[in-house]
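Render this sequence as a predicted structure.
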Amino acid sequence: MKNKESLHNCQQKKTGVSRRTFLKTVTGTAAGIGISQMFNPALVLAMEKALENHPVLWIQGQGCTGCSVSLLNSVEPSIADVLLKVISLQFHPSVMASEGETAMKNLYEIAEKYKGKFSLAVEGAIPVAADGKYCIIGEIDHKEITMVDVVKDLGAKAGSVLAIGACAAYGGIPAAEGNVTGATGVMDFFKTAGIKTPTVNIPGCPPHPDWIVGSIAHLLTKGVPELDEYGRPVVFYGENIHDNCPRLEQYEEGELSEKLSDPKGCRMDLGCKGPDTYADCYKRKWNSGMNWCVDNAVCIGCVEPGFPDATSPFYEPA
């Protein structure tokens, strides 16, 4: 029996995740976005079919690739299941084997083939100064393709756009005071360019992988999720950090931390931006549910418009 079990496990690894595991995997994310019927076979089949007709094209502008790293660190579901079962990822500069002009031509061919149906995931800010020359992402027929070019072209053709990370959503660090590149977020760029494609902001520095996967899963099954005034999915960004902080009771009792190593006490005097920040980090946590910012330091408000200028200095009271 033991050998048979080992053989079965080996076969499972070779053939990929089972349907049961797929259901469990997707519902782990879907539970947080309100898809209560995920165990309905018809809905699962619809999602699987949607993958064939709803590719995701992921492009990168001014950023550190931290959002991609966050996605690649997805644990439940695993990144393998995300790429094979949740997202039909057809273009991603950091993980695809193709490169150069071949990759760029493939990007535009997919965008044309699935015009109005694919989702464009934008990571990093868009530098508009100097005709976009601060960020050239490739070339076709010896013509340089800038981030401005690709976002303007593919953004208008996409069925939906996801601005992933603080930089893509609101400009982030590249748009901080002193920048000379004219860095801006997707929504502001679209307003200037006259593009009206539905856009979902998934800010964070970086955003939690669940926020990324969950938002794409929602697009596949139900369309654009309910958004707040800043274009963020309410289901992930609808709760105030301070109001849900495990240190709230200590704050209400007037117990404040004097240094980061204090095991108890509210960290508002140490610069915590929780009172002005909206996200579900406190319950979702990071690193397989191991911890979150307030466990180790303070909330720096990285999901809010204006980050980092509006929340700096990080370790001083607001």
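Summary. The radius of gyration is 21 Å. Confidence is low (pLDDT under 50) at residues 1-43.
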